[in-house]
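Can anyone check this?
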Amino acid sequence: MKDRAHSDRRTILASLDAITSAAAASSCCLPLLPFLAAAGMAGGSAFLAQLRPYLLGASLLLIGFGFYQAHRAKQCNRRTGLIATILLWSSAAVVAVMVLFPQAVAALLAG
């Protein structure tokens, strides 16, 4: 039981890390807290815009790691939790859309 919880936690963390990395990759287009941190975001979004390819690559690697962990758990006759599975597939879909359709995502987020 303890191994299953550990495996689920690692799968969930990999999925959340991938979503965070994908969100950071598109942060140049997201108006995050514009009234509270406009100046900081301008500098941060310019910096993150340059890192976008690396952040998307990190997202892909983390998604792959999440699927590897889920597959490895099945080999050990462990079932991954429903939340972990849903989160993994959802993050894979978000990252896939951001990689395959970057201009559409930027236009959608810009308003």
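Reply from J.R.: I decoded it. The mean pLDDT is 77.
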